User: Fold these one by one.
Assistant:
Number 1:
Amino acid sequence: MKIGKLSPDLLKSSVLRFEGAKRPEVLVGALLGEDSAIIDMGDQLLAISVDPITGASAYIGRLAVHVSCNDVVSNGAEPFAIQVLLLMSVDNTVEEVEAIMKEISETAREIGVQVVGGHTEFTDKVTEPIIAIIALGKVTRNKLSTSTGAKPGDRIVISKGAGIEGTAILAEEYRDMLSELSETVLDKAARFYDMISIVPEGRIATSQGVRVMHDATEGGVIGALWEVAEASNVGFTVDRDKVPVRLETKAICDKLGIDPLRLLSSGTLIMITPEPDELLSELQKAGIDAAVIGLIEENPERRVIVCQGEEVPVTGPTTDELWRLKSPK
Amino acid sequence: MKIGKLSPDLLKSSVLRFEGAKRPEVLVGALLGEDSAIIDMGDQLLAISVDPITGASAYIGRLAVHVSCNDVVSNGAEPFAIQVLLLMSVDNTVEEVEAIMKEISETAREIGVQVVGGHTEFTDKVTEPIIAIIALGKVTRNKLSTSTGAKPGDRIVISKGAGIEGTAILAEEYRDMLSELSETVLDKAARFYDMISIVPEGRIATSQGVRVMHDATEGGVIGALWEVAEASNVGFTVDRDKVPVRLETKAICDKLGIDPLRLLSSGTLIMITPEPDELLSELQKAGIDAAVIGLIEENPERRVIVCQGEEVPVTGPTTDELWRLKSPK
């Protein structure tokens, strides 16, 4: 198999249909487009999500914390704890474990989350450290946001820009191929890691009562929108010219011939809302860039990107541009 | 580093001191000897644990479910949901994903647990499938059991026997070196996988109000007891002759020159209780073998195994016998 997550079709046929027993505590279980499970704990709901970091080497601890906490934030939940699964190769050292745990702990402290154990193991089954973080968040019933809530006519808002995480990874890992770009651009791009938490915009969006939030991870902005559209059984129109693409992202993507809208984009929050104006103004007050990039459509078959007046249909989320670049077959 | 978990000393210095922020929701966070974190969700407590399977190839799905659910059972919690992290090598196929998910789902159904999503990814960072299962259990405050509760004078009871999981793994992976043993013995040993869930004895022990439960994983019965002793700041005396060791385990361990008391033993529940008689009788009624193997001591420095009248001090949990066998340096 190619590197990356399973395609939605394969997920449906090979993973999601295996559900074990049915339990009344489970409000949202295994569903396409839902990154967290939602559990009824009586007074409160628990949002829980797990994400591994396998495709990046720098800031692996920081990334791992943000990516998982972002998932529960997308449910309108307040992340409060993480568990850490750390699989180290036998070539790694205890000092490397310590450095990763320190980074995880510092990142957790920044966003107000406690590290509550986990599992650390040295194994000959991995060639590089793999971190998976399990994020726990709590949310009351009336604040819960899931991917099934998008309605025709809703606006699609995104924060920060397309391809945030991918830009940082490319600036680091493909520096040789990007040598024509200035050092300033590449250094700035590498610092996009600092934008990967969506906790700030997630809190604002939750307080503004948006219908759906979704973190744009693999497959980028278009991949995330596809997942929301599948979960909500709707279509979408995205105006390519309105999608904010940062200068550094554009320079790097142009150079490597990849589409920023389909590039790994942790740090970009997709927000679906009938009333984007107040949301945009609140985000702006907090110093967070955001823009309306399109519209939710009633017809689930209609999923298009409008580009200079022409409609390009989106036929399904393809492999993330980052994986395409790494294994171009 | 050698294959396996970090030693307790290294854990303390390199992992457990990194705690992120402090949160009031967290009742039990990162502690030696506690396999689950305990979270206050208002009405109920949540027990959550993550365990990867990296050292076994057969029944990997079934093992993964049991090992993680066992952890939350040890807290007196009722497991109700699992999340699945599945990291497949690029040489694996979608059919292999499906077979693993099917096995996970069937095992979950057997113990009444729902599969609530997770993450499946193909990556070039692993050489074989790695499964990590996150188990969620719920428990009321008065039923909570943690490893800190052992008191001097308490009896140490174990279920089934020492080295249950390790026996099954050795019978499969070391069949060549064990060819002098009969096929019948080896086949029976390989079926020890069927004993790996401690859900049945855990429910009984919880209803009997035992003080501490602990699943004997890496480091076996002695490793688990060491963790409990550390967490409770006590010592222990174990009478080697009283530790049930099944015929198949004894035959295999003798042949390979390893100590069954320090062999991977998921499926063996350590129960610490002041009143073992009723517990033993209830376990017997349910058809579960169990025995009193020793005593909790007041002096934390006194941790000994009594063997034919002689006291052998336990100076610390060593590497699991399985890892010692695999990398004998």
Number 2:
Amino acid sequence: MTIEPGGHLVSVSAGSLLHDALEQAGVRLTLPCGGQGRCGRCIVVVQEGSVRRRSTARLTEDEIARGFALACQTVVLSDVAVWVPPEVEELERAESATRPAKEAPDVMVCEHEAEPWVTQYELEITPPSLSDNTPDLERLQRELALQYDLRDLAPTSAPGTALRVLRELPAVLRDAQWHVVASVEHPASGPPRLVGVDPAAAPAPALGLAIDIGTTSVVIYLGDLATRELVGNASAYNGQIACGDDIISRIIYAKEPARQRELQERVLATINSLIDEMMVNASARGEPLSPEQIRRVTVAGNTTMLQLFLGIDPRYIRLEPYVPAAGRYVPIQARELGLHTNPDAFVDCLPVVGAYVGADITAGAVRAGLHAEEAISLFVDIGTNGEMVLGNSDWLICCACSAGPAFEGSGAVSGTRAVPGAIEEVWIHPDTLEPTWTTIGGKPPVGICGSGMISLLGEMVMTGVIDKGGHIVAEGPRVRRGSFGREYVVAWSHETAKGASGPDIVLTETDIENLLRAKAAIYAGLVCLTESVGLGVGDVERVLIGGAFGRHIDVEKAIQIGLLPDMAWDRFTYLGNTSVQGAYLALTCREHRALVDDVASKMTYLELSADNRFMDAFTSALFIPHTDETLFPSVQQALRELGEARGGSA
Amino acid sequence: MTIEPGGHLVSVSAGSLLHDALEQAGVRLTLPCGGQGRCGRCIVVVQEGSVRRRSTARLTEDEIARGFALACQTVVLSDVAVWVPPEVEELERAESATRPAKEAPDVMVCEHEAEPWVTQYELEITPPSLSDNTPDLERLQRELALQYDLRDLAPTSAPGTALRVLRELPAVLRDAQWHVVASVEHPASGPPRLVGVDPAAAPAPALGLAIDIGTTSVVIYLGDLATRELVGNASAYNGQIACGDDIISRIIYAKEPARQRELQERVLATINSLIDEMMVNASARGEPLSPEQIRRVTVAGNTTMLQLFLGIDPRYIRLEPYVPAAGRYVPIQARELGLHTNPDAFVDCLPVVGAYVGADITAGAVRAGLHAEEAISLFVDIGTNGEMVLGNSDWLICCACSAGPAFEGSGAVSGTRAVPGAIEEVWIHPDTLEPTWTTIGGKPPVGICGSGMISLLGEMVMTGVIDKGGHIVAEGPRVRRGSFGREYVVAWSHETAKGASGPDIVLTETDIENLLRAKAAIYAGLVCLTESVGLGVGDVERVLIGGAFGRHIDVEKAIQIGLLPDMAWDRFTYLGNTSVQGAYLALTCREHRALVDDVASKMTYLELSADNRFMDAFTSALFIPHTDETLFPSVQQALRELGEARGGSA
């Protein structure tokens, strides 16, 4: 097989997948859909030789005739020469180099008085003598009992007291001249554990990490376990993105053990590089920290992300009846995962409720505080899945609906993640149908991100570019027919980051269809949740929007397209990244950690795939804003007013 | 540097130790004394070039003139050519190839009714469905609660539930069609832990290992945790022997971290090869076992051996005030050490009392049963150290006295360990002073082992070859002057395994001096122990002899030389390897495990190095049988009778 550019010559046996053959030759392609042949991002051109295309989705007949093939769906039958378009190969590098737009950390520090997970005790110890040659460990324990009344710290009842501590103990005690600081972990149950001994002359606060492993981004907060103060924060794209954009793509990618390990290694590499970065930043600030100080790690994320992080096969999450390996994870130590922390650090993965209601939701619900109020609130986290929790201090019910990747960038021809240059807001002139837009960071546009899609779709329906069924009905210079049906041009190529030689930024009817499915799934979930407890959508008193994406949604536009229920804007609250915030609360406060378990066990999981009402509600919601317009009176009103205005001006 | 034979040419910088330079060149020498220059086993001949001898102990002036040097004590000053005598280089290979004489396993199975450490529960589990998609782990736990009332097995309170189990759980449950066997560990404190799930169709009993890590030999018993039956056993020399024969030599060898790691790796390699061997043997018997079945490991051994096994610096054991790192060790998992067992197996190192009273003694004392009787008993383990425990069900007091390597083979010119061909019993004709002897396995003699030394020394004193001070006073063809003073020839070279070209097997006055020091140290320890509780040696009602060496001691001869107290032979009992037996009891019975802790905490440690009475008692015991002959009436009587007989026959 010959690969251009680069001219590698690789001999591959017949039957090998083109993607795998290219990977062997060192050419890595990005697989946003995990290798399902759905996204069309791995298109290459077979110039010579024989191949068999398992799927030709996303390819026109003309393209196939010219040798175009999806690398993830094409089997090599003979020696072949393959041209890899630079953008296909470069995609990964470009995306991994680009950070998600930096968000200010949003830390909620609680007022609880509970003891921290790890407490440090300063000790002056009488050195041993011939008349008292008590062993080192027992001597230390004796002092902890005498000076701090820590009497249960006997080694036989301390399953976590690490061998590493014991190995270092004799030298540390003597080097520190018997003046040390003992770090003692107080687990949720069982006796305290001695987790570290350091010289008192060089005290180092015990730190903890709160991690949100998102399908798209990984966000880390570093906190002081004693003071609960935020010490650092960092975020990056999840290194697994090259293996699939959404959960299902990742699960499909992970079908072989080696690939499952690859996914685990990728997310661990992302986390470790973020830890390293925080250490470097701290040094640059003149406040150096050591990874050894990180003595606890609290992890939130959806069920698939947690299973991949822990190296647990995620396949049964995708297969009916959709069963996670565990609801509450087992206690593990950082050394088992190779995290760049103290190897004895306890890694606490927060509990999940079901295959599609993960720890991002249990942590997020605690952050949102649903359990603490009498008012019926809805907590909603919109991403490739829309997860929702409805309830109050008496009851909680939750569900997940598969929204697809429409809001995450890869579900649309000109979709992008929320990177600098992403179009995030759009306005369409009702008369000329000409758009204006803003991009993240004010950079030349590279595509449309999720919030931009909502904004754009809202404008298109309000200005009559599309009808209620999502069909592009207007005519004009911005409307044309493309490869995927009719499309609306949001930005001409010369306006974009790629310039005149690149493609225009468009929204196609197929994209709109995906967006409608996404918003319909979420709204249908809300309908099913409320109906299952005998309520109507209107009975929801507050809507708490979580998730990194939620922060960017324009409520007005989201109501216009029927994604969010039509109610007064002041009943909506943005909470930002509720997953990492909930993890930070659980990291810094044991009472909040207990709350996550309580909330998780209190949540009733409504399985929508077993619910006929869901399909009905979904079908009804496939219109803009909804088949039943009375559910969206403010939109009805605005449409009427705009129609009158247009009618007036026509 | 040139090395012969082999003719390696290695350039070593000046200042490098000859031993290290040889090791770099791939020539490994055995260092029985750990590199202290005391044993003379690493003698090489410097043929060319310049060296500096730090120590010339064990070398005559003539030998030095001929280039002889101790590799462990000689610094290379220039390019040198070194001749390594084959026996010096080959020693290690020969010794590691030779197994200790095989002992029949000596297992005490107790009658306690306590639950085993690991119990297996068969479970038929209802598969998940859309109406009940409880996660796998919680589904299993629910069944364990319903079917076996194991209600505390919640993951948050099970710090040992291994990630590995969770990783395998989804596939095992489904492959086994929801019919599985759950292995549940019941720790000494805290809730039970799920440690394994296997298909019910392929049940595999939970096994455990009891290990005695001796300074010389490692002995392993493999048992069924449920039935307590012995499944296999194996033993080998401790791979650390090449780095020193006794504890102090090993500690000296371990002074650099790399060497400490080497010692840990060596003993782990010994243990792992024994486990592998048992697996191979089981397969050969048609009863294949898997290392995965080994779910618990109980380890006994002296304090230094345990610290080296765990990778804990042993240096403070040797330095005043002689402090071990811990009395009770921390709980660890087999994966932390790389044992060839189930990686989640709990490794339970039994408690030590002091730097020189280790887990071999706490385990041995429990096996001996001192704590269970009203009669005052003495438990004694004779090796390079003589450890003793005196007491009964009300009290226990212990001490350790450094006997040196005289009984272990390397403390004498013709000393050897108890390998096939070792002279183990000697009789000397009272008139001709000609010896007859038996060897282990009836092989041609290779040297004299510890029991042979005791036997020989007893004969020598009873036949007047030596006087009460240990000086060789007889004359005759067997007595001559050698490099280390006068010596008695036990076997002429032509009778030995090496043949006429090899050395004669002898006992020198220096050897006798070492033997006297060894036996005096042990007897003095006994005197101090009894006096410290206001008793006399005669108040001891039973003497229980433990340790692998103890099994071979001839009580009559041991009393003759004043090693053991003079009392009726039926008050002595041989128990064999009490360390591994005690470990096996603790492995197979939780009540016995608790007893080891009880006994360890009940033992008062008498530090002899701080006790002036010890030096007095030691000096008094440097005669044969003792300065105070009234302490050994039977020996006095026998000597008188023999003297009369000789007087009569002369």
